[in-house]
Specification:
Blueprint (H helix, E strand, L loop, with lengths): L4 E3 L5 E3 L5 H19 L4 H13 L15 H13 L8 E4 L3 E7 L5 E7 H9 L21 H15 L8 H9 L18 E6 L2 E6 L1 H6 L30
Antiparallel strand pairs: 1-2, 3-4, 4-5, 6-7
Helix pairs in contact: 1-2
Length: 249
């Protein structure tokens, strides 16, 4: 995704709503073929192939540019599907004979096409989309980079002054309330909305890792010594049956 404009040297917003698709096609062709030239063997055949592709596709490579984003939540779901989902959905596989796989796909005009591939070729086509471990699936450029956060915040405040109301980024709590229609800090038992995060147990590199706990709460000033109840004393026959609850998210 790209912004429709950017900040000039004075820190002011310059709008740029026109995208030259002809130039975008040629730029995409140049980047692809230049990357191929780097990874392919340095030989006369490679040079001839790159040159032939430049001359054959004089208008550049095909680029399917999406229209302007009107719905932020919709584009979030669109991007998330490509980040977390496999290359092909199970529902698109229509037949399996033990030696071949038949699946379908839809082109940009929503026309359905079916293809039948040998099993090993189909597996190869799927696993090649699995990224290496620790590979960054999302990268940020321009105004999306974290180091531009201060400039973006100042720009939002300036826009808010022009519009007459405050424009600010939503907190994690507000985003959950907006997207899932529930308050993550509301107690499901008493209904109070001032719960604090105690600890979080997650699956990290094949093992359960707990973040937080009493030390973390004391360090952050959430708890003081007087807030902690005295330890519960009882004989062995009256020990609670459930000692700890760990949730893996």
């Amino acid at each position: 995704m790209v912004t429709e404009g950017g900040l000039n040297a004075a820190g002011e917003w310059d709008s740029q709503i026109f995208v030259n698709y002809a130039a975008l096609r040629k730029l995409w062709q140049y980047e692809c073929l230049t990357a191929l030239r780097v990874v392919m063997p340095r030989s006369a055949e490679t040079a001839q192939l790159i040159d032939r592709l430049f001359r054959r596709y004089r208008n550049g490579f095909y680029v399917h540019a999406k229209p302007r984003v009107e719905d932020g939540q919709g584009i979030g779901r669109y991007i998330g599907r490509y980040i977390r989902h496999p290359a092909i959905e199970d529902a698109r596989i229509v037949a399996y004979t033990g030696t071949t796989v038949t699946f379908f796909y839809e082109d940009h005009d929503r026309v359905r096409h079916e293809q039948t591939w040998p099993v090993l070729e189909f597996i190869h086509g799927v696993v090649r989309h699995i990224p290496p471990k620790q590979f960054k699936m999302v990268r940020y450029f321009g105004l999306y980079t974290p180091r531009k956060a201060a400039q973006v915040k100042a720009l939002l405040q300036h826009i808010g002054q022009m519009l007459g109301h405050v424009v600010r980024r939503l907190s994690w709590r507000s985003r959950i309330q907006r997207d899932f229609d529930r308050d993550p800090l509301q107690c499901p038992r008493c209904g109070r909305t001032d719960m604090a995060l105690y600890s979080l147990t997650v699956l990290w590199r094949g093992q359960l890792k707990t973040i937080g706990g009493l030390k973390w709460l004391f360090k952050g000033g959430v708890l003081r010594e007087m807030d902690v109840a005295p330890p519960f004393k009882s004989d062995a026959s009256q020990q609670p049956r459930i000692l700890q609850l760990a949730l893996g998210l």
